[in-house]
Amino acid sequence: MASVTVRVPAKVNLQLAVGPVRDDGYHDLVNVFHAVSLFDEVTACEAAGPELTVRVEGESAGDVPTGPDNLAVRAAQALAERSGRSGGAELVIRKAIPVAGGMAGGSADAAGALVACNELWRLGLSFAELMEIGAGIGSDVPFALFGGTAVGTGRGERLTAVPASGTFHWVFALADGGLSTPAVYAECDRLRATGEAAPAELALSAPLAAALRDGDAKALGLALVNDLQPAALSLRPSLSRTLDAGRGAGALGAIVSGSGPTCAFLAESAAHAAEVAAAVETAGVCRSAVTASGPVRGATLAE
Question: Can you give the pLDDT of all 303 residues of the chain as single tens digits?
Fold first, then answer.
């Protein structure tokens, strides 16, 4: 039976500037995405009938929906509708990206399904067409296809590459359980309405762009910013201890990744990242800690 496997990276947000809520319920964003070497794998296999099915293995697999709410299934359905195809597929997702952890694991799986099914079904859709379909699935799906380092505007789906030199080394402290992205945005709106938080300027940070261009990890660590972090800490106060543990271990920068609850720490080198990960785990402030590096490519066919 024919099958196609695609490897898709997690992301960390280096800058997440959140504007006021729009009439459509979304927020305008300036979102600097950075793809890191923590990967899910999505395999699309031929199916005898027209159904689309999904099986999930690995990291927190039991927390991933396997029905119509699964983003990989929704992506494959959208691809089939776009191409006028009625044939089905079996999707197998091998998770390494934390579920509901603010690292766009579900969006990565959707991107993987788009690339895998486009190849399996021999549809020949272009990268631009897959990006368009992905944007209809979720705001983070296009970046999972795009990869590297990029700034997203609008809902985050309109992407422009950001020049970055060298390799940056990261530690990700994984939390027990997840945080609902809509709940974090709602808390962000509440904190702003009560004057406990203020919106940032919707513009790419010049110090952050310069640090990326120069490959300056120390400067990048100082420039990391996430407008959703106060909301994530409000909903999960224990994350403050996680951030403090990473800073205490010498991390160059510490930030909640996206809507959380994963916390990201920038390190000087791969060896330093291993030291920070060990210190954070020893402090008992997370379920586990993993190391990764970036930037890496977006959704890629596995060899």
Answer: 599 999 999 999 999 999 988 888 888 899 999 999 999 999 999 987 788 899 999 877 788 888 888 999 999 999 999 988 876 899 999 999 988 788 989 999 999 999 999 999 999 999 999 999 999 999 899 999 999 999 999 888 899 999 999 999 999 999 988 889 899 999 999 999 999 888 778 899 999 999 999 999 999 999 999 999 999 999 999 999 999 999 999 999 999 999 989 999 999 999 999 999 999 999 999 999 999 999 999 999 997
- For residue 7, the 8-state DSSP code is E
Q: What is the pTM of this model?
A: 0.93
Query: What domains sit in the chain, N to C, each tagged with a CATH number?
Result: 3-162+297-301 (3.30.230.10), 168-293 (3.30.70.890)
Of 40, 109, 140, 227, the catalytic one is 140
103 is in an annotated binding site: yes
Residue by residue, DSSP assigns 77-142 as HHHHHHHT----EEEEEEE-SPTTSSS-HHHHHHHHHHHHHHHHTT----HHHHHHHHHHH-TTHH
Residue 98 counted as an annotated binding residue: yes
Known catalytic residue at 11: yes
- CA 252 from chain center: how many Å? 21
Separation CA 9–CA 29 (nearest Å): 21
Closest CA to 55 of 88, 87, 96, 93: 93
> 165: annotated binding-site residue?
no
CB under 8 Å to 111, separation ≥6 — which residues?
A: 6, 8, 75, 130, 134, 141, 142, 144, 145, 298, 299
